[in-house]
C-alpha cells in the first residue's frame, strides 16, 4: 500500500512540474501582430472616416 502511495505522489508531482513548465514556456513566447496594411477584411479608410463623422 505504501509503494502505491509513493508512486502516486511521484506521478502527481511530475504532472504538476510539467504543467508549470508548459505554462511558463507559453508565457515566454513572443506573440506578434500582423500589420493592418492591405487587409482585405477591413473596409477602406475613406469609408471608415465617413462613418466616424456621422
Mean pLDDT comes to 83
The number of helical segments is: 2
Quantity of strands, as a count: 0
Largest sheet: none
Q: What Rg do the Cα atoms give?
A: 26 Å
Q: Which class do the helix and strand fractions yield? A: mainly alpha
The run of helices and strands is HH
Name the beta content range.
under 5%
Shape: rod-shaped
Low-confidence segments, given as residue ranges, are: none
Helical amount among residues, as a percent range?
A: 55-70%
Alpha-carbon distance between the termini?
A: 75 Å
Describe the structure.
This protein has 54 residues and is an all-alpha fold. The chain has helices at 2-28, 45-53. The termini are far apart.
Outline of the structure:
By secondary structure, this protein is mostly helical. Helix content is 67%, strand content 0%.
What topology emerges from the helices and strands here?
Elements (H helix, E strand, L loop, with lengths): L1 H27 L16 H9 L1
Task: Considering the chains and any ligands shown, give keywords for the structure.
YtzI protein; 54 residues; transmembrane helix
Amino acid at each position: 500500500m505504501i509503494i502505491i502511495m509513493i508512486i502516486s505522489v511521484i506521478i502527481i508531482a511530475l504532472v504538476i512540474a510539467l504543467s508549470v513548465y508548459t505554462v511558463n514556456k507559453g508565457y515566454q513566447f513572443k506573440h506578434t501582430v500582423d500589420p493592418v496594411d492591405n487587409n482585405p477584411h477591413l473596409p477602406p479608410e475613406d469609408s471608415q472616416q465617413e462613418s466616424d463623422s456621422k
